[in-house]
Amino acid sequence: MNKGSTSFQVVTTFGTKIIILFGSFIISVILARLLGPEGKGIVTAVFVVPNLIITLADLGIRQATAYHIGKKLYKTEEIISSVMIVWLIASLLSLAVAVTYYTTGSVQSYGWLIITIALITIPLKILSKYFQGILQGQIKIGTFNISELLSFFVNLLGVLLLVWLFNLDIIGAALVQLLMGIVMLVYLTIVITKKFKITFKYNKEVSKSLFNHGIKFALALFILTLNYRVDIIFLEQMTSPESVGIYSIGTNLSELIWKLPAAMGMVLFAKSASSKVGDEKTYLRAVKLLRMSMPLLLCICLLLWIMAPFLVSVIYGEEFISSVEVIRILLPGIFVIVISKILHPDLAGRGFPLYAFWVFVGPLILNIILNLILIPKYGMSGAAWASTISYSLGGLLFGIVYSRKEQIPLRTVLFLQLSDIKEVINKFKKAM
Predict the structure, then answer these.
(1) In the chain, what is the straight-line distance between the N-terminal and C-terminal CA atoms, in Å?
(2) CA–CA separation, 397 and 407 (whole Å)
(3) With 90 as the cut, is the pLDDT of residue 371 above it?
């Protein structure tokens, strides 16, 4: 199989995601067992807003960097220098926003040590995202995957040492996040400096172009991420840490379904960013991957729906059994929003990220309204219903918008074709 082909890169990226998926599952179990619902809820609540801030502070620079490098709009060294200047500004502003949130929000009751650790992770993770954009722009998917695996192994070892062996509890869990940020950034810095020189040099033209493109990516990514995490914010404010911890187990298990679409999306973005203008293969590639993955994902969703009680009780313990209802409520929305998770990276890579922004503004507002109405009455289940309704609406709307933009029937976008089955059979025969 050609190492530069979409199939190879999707397979290797998916293989990486599977390893991380299995390992993250183990880590989630260990943390849940060691911290309990309350401790798990505190860690989730403390880090949810910094992660949202990082998404916004990204300013879409990661995607814009990949786009500029892929299209060869400027010299790579010039792009990197401008990225470093943006990172300094974005980090300072992000820290200011985060400190303001912590000093006015209820999370300050958890203690300033864990909050300080969360703050330190912000500039580290922002720069790592920017550096990953450089790798995507060069279609260095293999190196990108290695960085993800490295982060996972640090996560696993950190949890075993700091949380389990040294019994540092929630502080240990927070320190693991910090270690992951440090190791990831060191690795990416080493990889990039082998080929390029990192300097802090302001270039008005390059910086303006990065920002103009980046803000579009940032708006889309922020709206999407907020839609995925706004439920945690409301739960933290309106319920107990125990409820947040139990709910987070439900969302973590449900969102495992997204690993395959995430692998496809990353490859599609890199391919689309480096494609020539007017290349029809980009959207044909995306819709084919969507059609061929949907039946598999549907089967996985049904299996998880059936097995949820067994998985939660055996692996996490009876104290987390309430997350079963959360999982079952979320699964329909998780499945439908896969449509946008595969199609959005294709459009974003071709320079049209704002489609996701405009499509998901409505579902996000609906999500917020439903959370405010349903959480006081139904608690975790209310938050899950708000999310699954929002996800379903957003996924379907994005499929409709995509089909109209590319002028192809919606059924061609969503439903498996006879030609897809024949192609799979032929590839299987060749592999044999």
Answers:
(1) 13
(2) 15
(3) yes
Cα–Cα nearest to 50, from 145, 123, 154: 123
pLDDT digits (tens, 9 = 90+) for 160-188: 999 999 999 999 999 999 999 999 999 99
Burial 4-20 (b: 16+ CB within 10 A, else e): eebeebbebbbebbeeb
Indicate the domain borders of the chain. 6-431
Using the structure block, give the residue that is written with the tokens 């320079």. 351
Q: From CA 181, how far away is CA 321, in angstroms rounded?
A: 32
- CA-angle at 250, arms to 246 and 49, nearest 5°: 75
Positive or negative CA dihedral for 259, 262, 266, 272? positive
CB contact at 8 A, 374 and 382: yes
- Tokens 């849940």, located at residue: 32
State both tokens at 352: 């049209």
Q: Compute the distance between CA of residue 355 and CA of residue 339 in angstroms, rounded to an integer.
A: 13
CB-neighbour burial class of residue 268 (10 A; exposed 0-12, middle 13-18, buried 19+): buried
Q: Which residue has the tokens 């990486």?
A: 16
Question: What is the Cα 217 distance to its own chain's centre?
Answer: 14
Alpha-carbon gap, residue 161 to 155, rounded angstroms? 10
Question: What is the distance between the alpha carbons of residues 13 and 77, in angstroms, rounded to a whole number?
Answer: 27
Q: Which two tokens stand for residue 30?
A: 């260990």
Whether 278 has a pLDDT exceeding 60, the answer reads no
Residue 1: count other Cβ atoms within 10 Å of its Cβ: 12
- 103: pLDDT strictly greater than 90: no
pLDDT band at 266 (very low <50, low <70, confident <90, very high): low
Report the alpha-carbon distance of residue 243 to residue 124 in Å, rounded. 30
- DSSP for 115-171 reads HHHHHHHHHHHHHHHHHHHHHHHTT-HHHHHHHHHHHHHHHHHHIIIIIIIS--HHH
Residue-wise over 194-225: b if at least 16 C-beta within 10 A, else e? eebeeeeeebeebbebbbebbbbbbbbbbbbb
- For residue 333, the one-letter residue type is G
d(Cα 317, Cα 32) in Å, to the nearest integer?
Answer: 9
